[in-house]
Amino acid sequence: KEKTLEAVERNIEKILTRELEQEDLDTIALKDIAQTISALNEQEQEFKSEINLYKSKIQNHVNEELAKLRFFTNFTYHFLVGIIVVGLLAMNLITGILFFLYAWFRAIITNRSESHLIFTDLEIYETFNIEENIKRKYVLAFANLIGILIGIGLDLILFEYTELFYILYSFVSGVILYTIVREVIPEKEKGKPLYFLIGFAGFTVVIFIINIFTNLL
């Protein structure tokens, strides 16, 4: 409808231009054209209001569904991180500490209140409700602790970390990598390579320090 309306407006503009270029202006025709343009403008405003209403409904629905999905995935992620950290610390101290640091930075990144464009044509954004359900906050806060307790329990019963453990480790590592690509790496010309180099150098130094202390122990 909106595209059809724009095409009609362009045709009327051409007709109006031809009428104005004539020496003897037809006042009746000009009045009719003016009334038509006014009616089209009103219709255009109605279309825009209707589009904004639908966009608002879609926005609310998308935010509700994404909030549920984000809660489930975040709980699962933090729960698995707790189990994996205990298992990695039991096998290798350096690996466990580095994995914990990466997971911690990922948690910091996802707590930023930024909007992400989901549907480019409709300009629908994923928004985050800062004042979300308090119960959900408490459940997410205890997800890591629950995972750690279960990990300690598995370690106490001498649980053998088979291929399942490495599958979970790969899954969580993939989530961290996805978060970095989606929410951290800047788009187009907004990037600052200096920050990347500083972060790379900083993590390299941390790895060497942890390795030195581990060898001394």
* Distance N to C terminus: 74 Å
Average pLDDT reading: 69
* Helix-and-strand structural type: mainly alpha
Q: How would you sum up the global shape? A: elongated
Q: Would you identify the regions where 5 or more consecutive residues have pLDDT less than 50? A: none
In DSSP terms (H or I, runs of 4 or more residues), the helix count works out at: 6
Largest sheet composition:
2 strands, antiparallel
Strand runs, count: 2
**Element-level helix/strand string:** HHHEEHHH
Give the DSSP E fraction (strand runs of 2 or more residues).
under 5%
Estimate percent helicity: over 70%
| Widest beta sheet: strand line-up | 1-2
Gyration radius over CA: 29 Å
What does this structure look like?
Residues 30-57 form a coiled coil. The chain crosses the membrane at residues 79-105, 138-158, 164-181, 193-213. Keywords: Coiled coil, Membrane, Transmembrane, Transmembrane helix. There is one protein chain. This protein has six helices and two strands, in the order αααββααα. The radius of gyration is 29 Å and the shape is elongated. α1 runs antiparallel to α2 (27-91). The model has no long low-confidence stretch (mean pLDDT 69). β1 and β2 form a beta hairpin. With 217 residues, it is mainly alpha-helical. Helix content is 79%, strand content 3%. Strands 1-2 form a two-stranded antiparallel sheet. It starts with a helix and ends with a helix. It has helices at residues 2-21, 27-91, 93-110, 134-156, 163-184, 193-216, and strands at residues 116-119, 124-126. It has a domain at 60-185.
